[in-house]
Amino acid sequence: xxxxxxxxxxxxxxxxxxxxxxxxxxxxxxxxxxxxxxxxxxxxxxxxxxxxxxxxxxxxxxxxxxxxxxxxxxxxxxxxxxxxxxxxxxxxxxxxxxxxxxxxxxxxxxxxxxxxxxxxxxxxxxxxxxxxxxxxxxxxxxxxxxxxxxxxxxxxxxxxxxxxxxxxxxxxxxxxxxxxxxxxxxxxxxxxxxxxxxxxxxxxxxxxxxxxxxxxxxxxxxxxxxxxxxxxxxxxxxxxxxxxxxxxxxxxxxxxxxxxxxxxxxxxxxxxxxxxxxxxxxxxxxxxxxxxxxxxxx
Amino acid sequence: xxxxxxxxxxxxxxxxxxxxxxxxxxxxxxxxxxxxxxxxxxxxxxxxxxxxxxxxxxxxxxxxxxxxxxxxxxxxxxxxxxxxxxxxxxxxxxxxxxxxxxxxxxxxxxxxxxxxxxxxxxxxxxxxxxxxxxxxxxxxxxxxxxxxxxxxxxxxxxxxxxxxxxxxxxxxxxxxxxxxxxxxxxxxxxxxxxxxxxxxxxxxxxxxxxxxxxxxxxxxxxxxxxxxxxxxxxxxxxxxxxxxxxxxxxxxxxxxxxxxxxxxxxxxxxxxxxxxxxxxxxxxxxxxxxxxxxxxxxxxxxxxxxxxxxxxxxxxxxxxxxxxxxxxxxxxxxxxxxxxxxxxxxxxxxxxxxxxxxxxxxxxxxxxxxxxxx
Lengths: 298, 374
Description:
heterodimer; A: mainly alpha; B: Rossmann fold; Rossmann fold; 2 domains; 7-stranded mixed beta sheet; 12 strands
């Protein structure tokens, strides 16, 4: 393999890995505080990508679009918690027991998909690049890279850094960890648990928003695109161990690179090999790379 | 004796003219974008033909009973059973996925209800049944073998190295097999053969392989038609792309861009430069606006509709057997596509013949006939 090829595969692997990381990050933060996941995370990404397209179609400048989409998605996260998760808690066993949120969040995903189909049609859409002209890659060392690929890699690293700071250095972050550790004790310490839960779901959806905005131009945008990202995001979060932001970044990078290189080595099973690798890893280390010997603190 | 006769008379199909004939339609109308684009476009053409028939005062009236098979074979089979058993349709049209058609065609053959298959393209759909006398399975669509033959014939003459990117679905693997066999018959072989899962988002690795193998013609048989084009600028690699008739979709043009698509070649069965095709095109644009996105598929749906309406008007019957015979003998079809005016015979149930398939090429934002090199 030539250096140029190596570089090319690395960049495209990193870019896809970055999108998976952002998706996994959204799954991780919601899981951290509430022990729940948003199975519609990929569909939130899809709706963000389509919203970006629609708003840009209205001639709104890109920075405004990005802020708007991320905010809209934040609200969507709040709505998801409010409509699809909180009532279940209130209903307790009448709400279907401990795991009914799996169905309700996945159901939310289906609803979003169908709404998207009604509004934008079922076909794949073209999403123009955010920062450059069409098909204008930057060249270095024999490889061609789209600015969006670099942007998504940079953003995912930034987001991980921000998460680190937020979770371990701010009061809110500590509150989230307190809620994660023991919600009842958190209440006794004067933490508004409900507010924290809403906060994490809003944050998770904003992450889907960011990844949707950035991923749109480098993948095909259509209403059914979300599931692949949910599945791969879950795989990445599982590799990372669901409890450490840096490990999730590592998992995402690993998964993206594995995907890109395995497709180069053997395209017949290129998509299968990374998932097999995740399976194997989970057999050896069920708690992921950074997970301790025991599962979560709970 | 009188009562027996009365009962017999009641149970016999009414010989008098029927008012409304139901036509069952199964199409892929949700699921992967490529499937829906096929399904919706074919249905648009079919509906347009029925609309014209009714505007022309056609009798009996035609009622389309449309179901969405979601590209799912089990669902397709149960929908066809529902059409036969509870909707009592005497004729069925559909669907996109060849696998689905192969799953429900035997059901229709057994029930002796005629099928006009489309826009599915697997080669063996009609040939599997043609020996059963009579066969109830007809088709108005592209035939995979015909388009692959046309592409390979042209490919081996004009290019040094041919590569293939196909999906790992039933369709993609089937296409790959026929391409490899076709090349072997022409004493050629693939310089590179790469696969990709149906849900992938990035074909950079596969296209790198093509570039390294020095491939100058990439055969694109992946359902996400646009993926092959995406890495081309980054890799600074611009081979000719040829493939499935799906590449003629206006949706592909929107996603890929006219500039990148320029020179891309695909199997075709509709010459868009004829006056009839232009008239059809204008009519469809008026009828469906932006929703009309795929001339060749819509035109085949329209021709299937023309055959159906002609047959129903002539037969004046809701008896599936009568309709089957009428379809086989239909004559005077003024098709938009390469469908001849007397398309079917007891040994041939295809609208499109091998000589009706030609190569189309994207030129200035339109698919035109590929002129052979001098």
